[in-house]
Amino acid sequence: MKSHSRIYDFRFTIYDLKMDLAANLNSVRQRIAAACARAGRDPNSVVLLAVTKGQPPEVVNEAGKLGLTLFGENKVQEAKAKIPLCSSRLRWQMIGHLQTNKCREAVELFEMIQSVDSLHLAQELSKRAEQVGKTMPILLEVNLAGEASKFGYRPEQLQAELNQLNALPRLEIRGLMTMPPWSDDREQSRPYSRRLRELAAEHGLPHLSKGMSHDLEAAIEEGATIVRVGTALFGKRWKP
């Protein structure tokens, strides 16, 4: 009886979650559309990537039923446990710091790796992609603020290594990714978003992954093609 009660409570929670998710997704899409309108952009030019760190498969699958198809994970180990339990139609990208000893699994699990932050990591990814006969799309992570607590290329380092990165046979550089310093004022992230756009344009890279729950508007107005949204969709991380 106690076990049945737990199952009933869990299903009731999932029902409530689905209602919240639907409302949250609608709100995020409205924010994206409004930002695109201000920037004179087509909303279809911005991809919404749902960040599922700390969210269980049940939550991810409910989000998938609402029309979300692209999901981002921060850790290979969590993704490895979660992805097999989710709908096979969902697509996955790596957005967190990647260690070289996780490259083999990352190449197998993800359709894109957004967080390539060194030549050494890129070389290992190319090697692992070669072993499975795969070409791996990547984004190069740029640490525009020079924060010691964050990973990513310094702009001058990126410039120095870009030819070597482009020469790696199994990688396809699609664009750049960044995570500006945190601020309650979303406008504080705008200069970093603008600089990333300028840096991508200098090198002919089409995709820009920037903007999260709190600052996606500024990111879109400054050219983001991918926004990474977690809290605004799912709320706090799931605690069953």
Q: Short description, anyone?
A:
The protein is of the alpha/beta class and 240 residues long.
Structural overview:
This protein is α/β, with parallel strands linked by helices and about 240 residues long. The chain has one domain (about 1-235): TIM Barrel, CATH 3.20.20. About 45% of the residues lie in helices and about 15% in strands. The protein has helices at about 1-40, 55-65, 75-80, 105-110, 120-130, 155-165, 190-200, 215-220, 230-235, and strands spanning about 45-50, 70-75, 90-95, 110-115, 135-140, 170-175, 205-210, 225-230. An 8-stranded parallel sheet has the order 7-6-5-4-3-2-1-8. It is globular.
Brief descriptors of the model:
eight-stranded parallel β-sheet; 16% strand; TIM Barrel; alpha/beta; 9 helices
CATH structural architecture: Alpha-Beta Barrel
**CATH topology group:** TIM Barrel
| Overall form | globular
Strand order of the largest sheet: 7-6-5-4-3-2-1-8
Question: In percent, how much strand structure appears in the residues?
Answer: 15-25%
Largest sheet: 8 strands, parallel
SSE order, as H and E? HEHEHEHEHEHEHEHEH
Measured between the Cα atoms of the first and last residue, the distance is: 19 Å
Q: Total domains, how many?
A: 1
Count all strands and give the number: 8
- Mean pLDDT over the residues: 91
Secondary-structure map:
Elements: H1 2-39, E1 47-51, H2 57-65, E2 70-73, H3 76-82, E3 91-94, H4 103-109, E4 112-116, H5 119-131, E5 136-141, H6 155-166, E6 171-177, H7 190-202, E7 207-209, H8 216-221, E8 226-229, H9 231-234
Parallel strand pairs: 1-2, 1-8, 2-3, 3-4, 4-5, 5-6, 6-7
